[in-house]
Structure formats: structure tokens, C-alpha cells
Amino acid sequence: MALYTTEDAKYLKRRIRGGQIDVHPTEKALIVNYSIEATVLDEFQQTMLGDKKDAQKIIRLKSLNPNTDIRALAKEVISQCKLIHPTKRLEVEQLLSYLQNRRDTAPSMTTSGTGTQKPISDELEQPSIDFQLTETANITDIDDYAELLYDNVPDKIKGSALILQLARNPDNLSEIYQKESVLNALARVYKDEWKASIELATNIVYIFFCFSSFTDFHGLVAQYRIGAQTMTIIDAEMKKYDQWMDEIAEERKKKSQTNNILFWISSRTTIPSIPDKYKTLIRKQEQFLRVAFYLLLNLAEDLKVELKMRNKIICSQLIHALDRDNNDLLILVVSFLKKLSVFVENKNDMVSTSLIVVTSVTDIVKKRLTSSTRIEL
């Protein structure tokens, strides 16, 4: 077998071959399958290397309606898409006719029983990431973004952030829903690599939160066991938070023993009294918790799912989260507890820790009425 070097490569030959044409499973669109064959030739036109990649092009037919002239539309599609040979005009007409008469099969994105769309909350802000993401995501490039999930952690964060951009637009959810390879990659990283970066975990749980905002997609979230994994991560983050608080308390104790100083009496999580190195950690963690609890709240619309959450001690996790100074997170947690309190079993769980609940809610009210009190030791 001959050995070649990069110096031998003189020409690159690329050939695009059109393939089968299908209808989109949920949208009024055609899917054109094609392959790209790339061949590297030497100066004697001999093949050195060759590669082939299958791809798809989606042609959305926004103007297609019951009154559309199918022949004229088929002619327009073929003229604008060079991947479709003119000899396939009759096939295109048949597919367009099928789409014209097909009942809409796209997920309705309705909440149970109401028949109205449940919008993604505008109050839930885009999770922050350590670097400035200047790229605008395009749904046609989603497979490229998914490939980043197989690279290093910064690339994983970037890829998940770009997919999140797409998921935040409800119009894209149906198409992402069809991308099984993308969802598999997201679920795998969320399960196996969430410890690598809280930003990565936040991006991915936010993507599935977007799906959870519509009841029709709850089956998808359940399929990938996102709820169970989210509760596992929440539990780990709560333990991490307790460790941070113990470290902060130890630092304060050492300072109080060596210095006679003025300081502000506040809850242990009041941001001004927390060292700078912990502020960013807590902020990012609370951002994850807010998205995570919001996702679980959406999934809890199903009483069977809510029962599973109770068995995993969801009340304990929510009560633990009351020991925070993030108003948005606290409001969400209290709302979740209120929903759970409808059932006596959940209420009993809360009664067992009633002092914590009452104290935490009282603190929330006090924080809105007064500022910290200053004393001298």
C-alpha cells in the first residue's frame, strides 16, 4: 500500500449526490437527503484519500395551503434547490400533495386541559456563562453544536449554550424533538459530566426546562430521566452548599477571635458577609437550582410524577433551599411547597420541619422590611 504525505496532495474533488426526498414528520416541509463525497487527488489524478458524509436539507413550505397550486410550487422548489433533479418533478408534486392534505401532526404545545400554550417564563433569565457568547445559533447547525458536546468542557459549555439559544424559542422545539442524537448527547453529558461545570449543567437542564414548559413534551423529559437526575444533582449541590457555609463559619470564627470589629448581623447567606470567592459559586449554584426546581414544578403537573418526587424527598430539598438570600429562588420554592401542601402526605413532611419552614418564610418577609442591624462587639 502506497504511503502519501500532505505534500503529495494537489487537488480536492468534491461531489454532491442527491438522494431520497421525504416529507417532514411534523412540519409542512420536505427533507432532501444527499451525500457529500470528498476525494483528495495527487498530481497524477490518483486518489489519495476519500470520505463520504450523509446530510439533509429541510425545505420549509410556509406558503403551502389548501389553495396552493401544487405544480407551480413543485417547479419553484426544484428551481431553488439544486439537490433535486428536474426529473423528480412528479415525485415532488406527490409529496407536496400529501403535505397539503395531511392533518397537522406537530406537537400542540398545550397545557393539560386548558388548550392554551404555556409560554416559557420571561422571568427566568438566560443562564450566565464564563465567556461571552457572540455567536447566534441557527437551527440548521444544531448537529454541529451537538458535536461540541464530545469535546473539552469549554466546548461543551459553548455547544450547550448554542442549543439553549434555539430551545428558548418555542418554534424550534418540534425540530429539536426530532434530533434524537442531539438529545441523547445532552442527556449523556447531563448524567455523566455534570460535576465538570455548573454552567454546563445549568445550560442542559435549562434546555429540558424549555421542553417541560409544554405538557406534550413531558414524555420526552421522562424518557431521558431528566427529573430523577436533576434531583440527584440538587442533593449534591445542597451538600456542597453546606460545606461552603461551614468553611465560611470557620473563617468568621477565626476572625472574631483575633479582631474586635464591627460587623452586620444577618443570615449566614447574606451576600455582603460572604467572602468574594464564594459569591460567584453561590450565584451560579442558585441559578442552577432555580431552573432545576422550575423544571420539577412543571413535571409535577402529573400527580404520578409528583408522588415519585415525594418518595425522593422533594420537600426536604425545597425546605433546604429556603436558607438562601435569592428572592427569585425563594419565591419559586415557596410556590412549589404551596402546590405540594395540597396533599396531606406532603403537608405531614412539612410539619416535621415546620420550625424551619416558618422561620425561613418569616426571614423572607423581614428581609423585605428591614435591612441588617449593626452592633458593636
TrEMBL record:
Gene Ontology CC terms: axoneme; ciliary transition zone; kinesin II complex
Gene Ontology molecular function: kinesin binding
Protein name: Kinesin-associated protein 3
InterPro entries: KAP3
Organism: Didymodactylos carnosus
Top-rank taxon, per record: Eukaryota
A single GO BP: cilium organization
